Amino acid sequence: MTTTEHAVDDGGSQVAGDSFAVAKWTLASRLTGFVRVILVGAVLGPTQFGNLFTFANTLPWITFELAIGALLASLVVPPLVERFDQGGHDAVSDLARNFTGVLILAFSSVALLVMVLSPFAARLFVSIANIESGTAADNYISAAVPMLIITAPQIVGYGIAFTGVAVQNAVGKFAFPAAVPIVENFVVIGALALYAFIFETGTPLEDLTTGRWLLLAGGSSAGVFAHMGLQIWGAKRAGISMRPKAGWKDSAVRDIIRLAIPSSGVAVLNGARFILLSVATSVVPGGLVAFQMALNFLNVPVALGAKPVAQAMLPQLSRHEANSDSDSWREEYHRGMGLAALIAIPAAVAIVAMARPLALGTAFSELGSEFGRDLLTVSLIGTGLAVLGDALFQVATPSAYSRRNATDPFWAFAIRTGMTALAVAAVWAIFDGVEMVLGVSLAVALGDIVGGVYLDRRIGASWASPGYSLRSSLLRSTGASLLAFVPAAVVAGFAVQRFDDPPLSTAIAGVCGLVGLVAYFVLRNKMGSEEIQALRNSRG
To answer: Are 327 and 412 in contact (CB under 8 A)?
Structure first.
């Protein structure tokens, strides 16, 4: 099968298969990323050097996210698909090279700014961390400045890597670009392992030497550039060159830049919202810890469901839009939404219904007190509901970009942030303690759902499409979820309360959740599911 045939093959099965490939490798990437985080704690421990490495390692990604972030691929795929259909691989290579040249220039300027500001950032962190003047403070600044200079070019690396992902997706390649981040994680894991082998763990600032920070900062950047290099190679393997050239005269590049401006606003809104929620929950002792744990329960089903679906369906939607085929665009969008809901709806029902058993099974040590468990329970209730809105955002935002529409996503995110902020302000003024954390978590759900529905309506999608009933699919997924997970939650809650043993509680909650999941898919299949059938067809 040629790449063109791959792109225009049966939409439902093709998108389902590509989504499964992305989800599979995303799960593997998340697991290796989890190992990476555990090793940072194990090797560096609760030290200021551990904080410094985490800061230097994450600042480039945060900067990239504030500039444009993961939305970059959504902006670049539609024009790449159009070029591919018009002129094949050579036309895609021409646009990819033009855009890469402009991107390198823009992101290099941002990286240079981070380098210039690194001494100020280092001194600011010394002040925030209350590091006393003397050897410790001097060593911190002496290490922080070069570490930030070494890691700052990662901003360019991330930009090129995400462009490589977009190029491969545009020509129907999904598995390889989704798997590549695993290599980045392994490089950093290797650097941490080598550090533990050469030096002792838990390094205090007074003992900090050049070799220590150089190994970790260099390993971090080596991981990102290995990621970048493999994405470039993946594009080349797909027949596309990304060798940069001066491309600012390319009209498609100028269109991407025009759409990137409101998209950068989306990133800023997301950052502001996250800061607001962090500050609000930190008012309650242990509130931020519980809320962050609950966010992890939200992120997993979205990362394994809605995001892979959105990534896989974007080239198809872009092709329908380029052909002015509104009916096919709408049907493809609805099928993608139904496929994402196949995971999002049961995840939301499971998290809300099993909030107490999950809290009892995952809150250990200091958070294992009755107060800590209550905080985690109410956090899970709100973030569980938020799964629905977040999944809607994840699918609708790239779909809007397929229509060269960046304005409606910006206003949707603005509505989400504004509603969340108003609700948090009201909660803050009225409640405290557990009730306040519950109110904040519900404010997250409110903003996500209202903003997501607004965007869904604005991009021109209706409930009806010629070959697919989204309403019927959503109702069936909801019914199967309630029938599967509510009984599982009742059994789990009773058993966990009876035994009150953290390891056993975790096992009970996990088994009940797994039984509920199996029951859900059995029921959903019995009710009739085009989405499950599409997944079967995609697997041959």
So the answer is: no
**In sequence order, which residues have a C-beta less than 8 Å from that of residue 329 and are 6 or more positions away?**
317, 320, 321, 402, 403
Residues 306 and 394 sit within 8 Å (Cβ to Cβ): yes
Q: Which two structure tokens, joined as six digits, stand for 309?
A: 């679906």
Determine the Cα–Cα distance for residues 51 and 115; give it in Å rounded to an integer: 19
Which pLDDT value is given to residue 381? 95
Closest by alpha carbon to 212, among 120, 137, 140? Answer: 140
**Nearest of 386, 380, 393, 392 to residue 513 by alpha carbon:** 380
Amino acid at 27: L
Cβ neighbour number for residue 431 with a 10 Å cutoff:
15
What residue spans of 283-306 are helical by DSSP H? 287-301
| Per-residue pLDDT band at 357 (split at 50, 70, 90) | confident
293 close to 376: Cβ distance less than 8 angstroms: yes
Say yes or no to pLDDT of 454 above 90.
Answer: yes
Q: Token pair for residue 42?
A: 């194990």
Owner of token pair 């509901």: 385
Helices (H) and strands (E) in the chain, counts: 20, 2
Mean of the pLDDT values across residues 164-170? 94
**CA–CA separation, 228 vs 154, rounded Å?**
9
Q: How far is CA 345 from CA 306, 372, 484, 485, in A?
A: 11, 27, 12, 11
Identify the CA nearest to 340 among candidates 470, 168, 453: 470
Which residue, chain included where needed, has tokens 């996503």? 409
As to burial, measured by CB atoms within 10 angstroms (0-12 exposed, 13-18 middle, 19+ buried), residue 28 is middle
Q: How far apart are CA 91 and CA 536, in angstroms?
A: 34
Q: What is the DSSP letter of 34?
A: H
pTM of the entire predicted model: 0.85
Model confidence at 11: pLDDT above 60 = no
CB-based burial, 239-250: b 16+ in 10 Å, e otherwise:
ebbbebeebeeb
pLDDT value at residue 463? 59
φ/ψ of 404, rounded to 5, equals 60, 35
Weakest mean pLDDT among 129-143, 250-264, 298-312: 129-143
The whole-angstrom distance between residue 377's C-alpha and the CA centroid of its chain comes to 23
Angle at 255 between CA 252 and CA 257, to 5 degrees: 115
Helix (H) or strand (E) holding 465: strand 464-465
DSSP tag of 87? H
Cα 343 to Cα 355: distance, rounded to the nearest angstrom: 18
101 contacts: CB under 8 Å, gap ≥ 6: 244, 245, 246, 247
Classify 468 as helix, strand or coil: strand
Confidence category of residue 8, pLDDT binned at 50, 70, 90: very low
Residues 234-286: pLDDT tens digits? Answer: 999 999 999 999 878 888 898 888 888 888 888 888 888 888 888 889 888 88
Question: What pLDDT band is residue 130 in, cutting at 50, 70 and 90?
Answer: low
